[in-house]
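(Fold this chain)
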Amino acid sequence: MTTTTDTPNKTVRTTVDLAPELHLELRTWCLHAGVRATQAGVLRALAARLLRDPELSAAIKADLSPSQT
């Protein structure tokens, strides 16, 4: 069993299925963001911010339906 002190030395892959419309909107956002942004990079940045920003965390919790928690 891995504990919080046993941080892996390599990245861990997480996959997510997106609705086609959401995928297209995210892809379009990445193309027009004004920075070199990949979808994976955006999702990594969102995850990092989610974990350190209590307001964003609360907003995401409110957005989740009971079936998504």
Summary: DSSP finds three helices and no strands in the chain. Helices lie at 20-32, 39-52, 54-63. The chain has a mean pLDDT of 89. The radius of gyration is 15 Å.
